[in-house]
Amino acid sequence: MKSKVFFEGIRDGLPIGLGYFAVAFSLGILARNAGLTPLQGFIASFLNVASAGEYALFTSIQSKASYFEIALITLVVNARYMLMSCALAQKFDTKTPFINRFLVGFGITDEIFGITIARPNCIQPVYNYGAILISVPLWSIGTSLGIIAGNFLPARVVSALSVALYGMFLAIIVPPAKKNLTIMIAVIISFATSFLCSKLPYVSQLSSGTRTIILTIIIASIVALIKPLPDTENINDDKNDAKLTSGSLTQEER
Q: What sign for the dihedral angle of Cα 131, 134, 135, 137?
C-alpha cells in the first residue's frame, strides 16, 4: 500500500518537477551572474526550493548584501510556506512521527502543497516523499545547468535568459491582479514605491535587500489590515442563515 502511494507521489510530482526545471534554469543564469558555482547553485536550490526566495537570495548576493540581510529577506519572501505548513499540520494523523512531519514540511512548495491538500483523509508522508524525490532534484539540477550554460552561452543569450525570469514573475502576478482589484493596487504601489525608494535621498543609500524587506513588510501589513481575506467559515454560516430564513435549507444541510 505504501509503495503504491509513493509512486502516486512520483507520478504527480513529475510534471511539477519538469516545470521547476525550466524555471530553475533561468534562476541559474541569475545565480551565475551572482558568482555562484554549479555546486553552490545546486545546494542553494536544494535547501531553498522557492523561485521568489532564490531570486531574492541571488540578487542579494549579487548586490553584496550582508548575511543578516540575506537571511531576513529569504525568511520574509518564503513566509507563506509557514502558513502552508500550519494548514497541512491539521491533516496529519496524531501518531505521525516528528521526523515525517519535518521532512514533509521541508519539501513544501506551492505546487506540492496543492496536490497534498487536495488528497482526501490524512496526509501520507510517503506520498510527499515521492513528489519531493522527483521534483526537488529537477529543480536543483536545473539551477546548476543554468549556471553551466551561462558560462558558455554568448552574452546576448545570457542577457535574454535573465529577462525571461522577470517575465515569469510577471506571469505570476498579472493574472491574479486582473481578477482582484486589491492585488492590482498592491502590485502598482509596490512598483511605484520600489522605484521611489531607489531615488529618494537616504533611503536609496540602503541596500536593495533592506529596501525590499521594509517595503514587503509595510505594504503587506497595510493591505492585510485594510482588506483582510474573508473568513470562509463565516461566509458559509451567513449563507446557511440566509437559507434558513428563506426556508430553502435542505434536510442534508440541516
A: positive
How far apart (Å, rounded) are the C-alpha atoms in residues 214 and 192?
14
CA distances 127 to 71, 124, 176, Å, are: 30, 6, 30
Alpha helices in the chain (DSSP H): 2-33, 38-48, 51-62, 67-77, 80-89, 98-106, 110-117, 125-152, 155-179, 181-197, 208-226, 232-246
**Cell 486582473 belongs to which residue?**
178
To the question of pTM greater than 0.70 for the whole model, the response is no
Report residue 77: phi and psi, to 5°.
Answer: -65, -35
Q: Give yes or no for a contact between 10 and 134, defined as CB atoms under 8 angstroms apart.
A: yes
Distance CA 1, CA 148 (A): 41
Give percent above pLDDT 70 in the chain: 80
